[in-house]
Amino acid sequence: MPYPASTSLATPLATPLATTAPVSLPLPAAPADSAGVDSEMIQVARLLWPGPQSVEPVAGGLFNRVLKVSSPAGTHYLKRFTEVALSGDFPPLPTRAAQRCLVACSWHDLASRACVMPPPAQPPGQPPRQAAIRQPTARPLTVPALIAIQSEYDIVAMDAAAGAPLHERLTSGPGDKAVDAAALELPLRSIARWLGRLHALPLQPRNALLAASRPFKAFKIELQYVRLLDELPPRLHRAARAFIDDYLALEAEPVHGDLNSRNLLVDADHRVSVIDFEQGHFGEGSYDLAYLLSEYAIRALNHDRDPLPIVARAWDHYGSTRLPADPSAWQRRLHLHLAFQCLYRLVGPTRAVWTGHLDEPAGRRVRDWSLGMLERLL
Ligand SMILES: Nc1ncnc2c1ncn2[C@@H]1O[C@H](COP(=O)(O)OP(=O)(O)OP(=O)(O)O)[C@@H](O)[C@H]1O
Ligand SMILES: [Mg+2]
What we know:
45% of the residues lie in helices and 12% in strands. With 378 residues, it is of the alpha+beta class. It has two domains: 39-159, Phosphorylase Kinase, domain 1; 164-377, Aminoglycoside phosphotransferase (APH), C-terminal lobe (Aminoglycoside 3'-phosphotransferase, Chain: A, domain 2), CATH 3.90.1200. 40% of the residues are buried.
């Protein structure tokens, strides 16, 4: 599927070949070889970057291939969206590879735009400070530049993001308070502020992007929320279902959709880069903030601490860039998303990644805390 001409990439272009125009390849599609090396991805790499190149398949999702390419031009990543699962016997996803590619590029561009902070507001009656307005403020969070889109094969090319997954910090042993404050709170602060800007940005062409992302949203909410209903006492089912249905109907704000700590890379100076945008959809911002906070809450509960203080601090950071129209309703929904998502990380199909390091009493604390929150708020 060709990309609409209105798809624009605001990210600075890194090489002369860096273009939003599709790279044209002469060969028909061919499957990857047994080592997972995909011949079209190799061709795209050769078109984009000088030799000699070394390529390394990166273990990743079921419905995409990721290739790390090292060349004299530096390190870059290629990601290709596929129609069928690369291993196992999984049914196809509800959206085509081309739709996920379109979503990934559009949300990637949006995420880059949210990195640019607006200039400080001028006090009324004073002349504008030209220098302050022209100078972009420092970026506390980055998104690797999107370099090219090969729409014929659903391949995107991007810069490498620096750092290691935030997941490593969140699953490490209990640090002393000062270490935790820097290693965990500084990234959370920049992510929450960036999210506030992201959720307020317009994303176009809205109808085409709604059509490309809505089926995946429904698929994901079925997996993450609807299937959890069995974990809840029957008296909560009706209210829980209403909360879920509301989320499916809410389409005001563009959200990242998969803001877990493996998609957030943090460098030694605690600077964060965000990747992996193909689960972007239109929903409500509290969904994204809860997505990440569920991991912070699980860490707190694992170390027998109250999760609510860090949730409150994250909300303050979010609110410093974007105050929702009804803050108390927003916070209620944040806590409900959080409770569902903590439970999902405990019982969902990928639980080993998120809560596999917890012992039995810690797992029970996560369950009790989540169910208690649902009981109070539903
Ligand atoms: N631009 C990038 N810079 C640095 N690392 C990257 C980049 N893109 C991908 N990676 C690495 O490749 C991994 C897989 O990429 P990505 O998250 O986009 O795919 P995924 O299918 O969603 O994988 P997962 O299911 O692990 O989230 C990432 O966790 C990261 O380690
Ligand atoms: Mg990922």
